[in-house]
């Protein structure tokens, strides 16, 4: 007697990444019609046929759901993965959601970074900021955690610089700030719960393999066009 398949659950970071992820999953035949209804207040969506479930979560919560096994698979930016430092497997770089983690501020703040001065750093990513300044630059800094619109920090003199993601650079430009140092490149990643990887190896590896093939197909098409 064949055993009933259990649901595999995906946690997707809300916003731009979720739309891109759903598009990518759809391209390999993993669809979730229920999720397309933008007016819906439902939190969890099911594809009964494929025995898959999907939910949207705040980005920093995605690695938490995956670490605890509430979701088997998660998709979130590598910025969040670094910041949260959860015990999960990072299995695939999805190549979209590309941006850079940077130290930014007014041009004049460049000096402050060169002389190892005690400065104030505002960020939504206190762990990344701490690791960069303490372990890589060996500079003692005061880190101030903010939850958004971090660019305000230097403008209202809460901080000397910020550590934040830069995508197009327009938020910086429009606020008279600039990139002072680059910390690392960022992109969307797929993460997997450690136990799920053992228990559902075949199904999860199949999804990873198909996504990897699709991504390289898209990359090749891009190179040849
Ligand atoms: C992110 C980031 C920057 C901006 C960068 O903020 O924190 O503020 O986008 O993008 P850009 O280089 O294309 O201008 P988000 O829109 O997530 O809002 P938040 O600051 O309120 O978190």
CATH class of the largest domain: Alpha Beta
Give me the strand/helix succession.
EHEEHEHEEHEHEHEHEEHH
State the helical fraction.
25-40%
Question: What is the subunit arrangement here?
Answer: single chain
CATH superfamily of the largest domain: Periplasmic binding protein-like II
Q: Compute the number of structural domains.
A: 2
Q: What is the distance, rounded to the nearest whole angstrom, between the alpha carbons of the first and last residues?
A: 50 Å
| CATH topology heading of the largest domain | D-Maltodextrin-Binding Protein, domain 2
CATH architecture of the largest domain: 3-Layer(aba) Sandwich
What is the residue-mean pLDDT, rounded to a whole number? 94
Our count of helices gives: 9
Name the poorly predicted regions.
none
Q: What bound compounds does this protein have?
A: 1-O-pyrophosphono-5-O-phosphono-alpha-D-ribofuranose
In total, the number of strands is: 11
Major sheet: arrangement of strands: 2-3-1-4-11-5
Q: Main sheet, how many strands, which sense, barrel?
A: 6 strands, mixed
Q: Kindly provide the radius of gyration, computed on alpha-carbon positions and rounded to a whole number of angstroms.
A: 20 Å
- Shape field: elongated
Global structural class: alpha/beta
The fraction of residues assigned to DSSP E strands is 25-35%
3D structure, described in words:
- By secondary structure, the chain is α/β, with parallel strands linked by helices.
- It folds into two domains: 3-97 and 187-224, Periplasmic binding protein-like II (D-Maltodextrin-Binding Protein, domain 2); 99-185, Periplasmic binding protein-like II (D-Maltodextrin-Binding Protein, domain 2).
- Helix content is 36%, strand content 28%.
- The strands form two sheets. It has a six-stranded mixed beta sheet with strand order 2-3-1-4-11-5.
- Helix 5 links the parallel strand 7 (119-123) and strand 8 (141-145).
- The termini are far apart.
- The structure holds 1-O-pyrophosphono-5-O-phosphono-alpha-D-ribofuranose.
- 1-O-pyrophosphono-5-O-phosphono-alpha-D-ribofuranose (PRP) is lined by residues 148-151, 164-171.
């Amino acid at each position: 007697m064949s055993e009933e398949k259990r649901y595999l659950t995906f946690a997707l970071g809300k916003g731009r990444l979720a739309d891109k992820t759903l598009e990518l999953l759809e391209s390999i035949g993993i669809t979730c019609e229920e999720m397309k209804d933008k007016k819906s207040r439902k939190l969890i969506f099911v594809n009964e046929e494929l025995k898959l479930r999907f939910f949207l979560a705040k980005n920093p919560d995605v690695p938490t759901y995956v670490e605890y096994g509430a979701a088997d698979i998660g998709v979130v930016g590598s910025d969040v993965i670094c910041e949260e430092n959860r015990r999960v497997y990072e299995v695939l770089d999805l190549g979209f959601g590309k941006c850079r983690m940077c130290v930014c501020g007014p041009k004049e703040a460049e000096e402050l970074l060169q002389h190892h001065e005690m400065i104030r750093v505002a960020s939504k990513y206190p762990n990344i900021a701490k690791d960069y300044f303490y372990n890589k630059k060996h500079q003692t800094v005061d880190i101030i955690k903010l939850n958004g619109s971090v660019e305000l920090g230097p403008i209202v003199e809460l901080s000397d610089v910020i550590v934040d993601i830069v995508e197009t650079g327009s938020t910086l430009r429009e606020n008279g700030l600039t990139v002072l140092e680059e910390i690392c490149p960022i992109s969307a990643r797929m993460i997997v719960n450690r136990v799920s990887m053992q228990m559902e190896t075949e199904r999860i590896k199949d999804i990873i393999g198909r996504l990897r093939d699709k991504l390289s197909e898209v990359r090749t098409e891009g190179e040849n066009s």
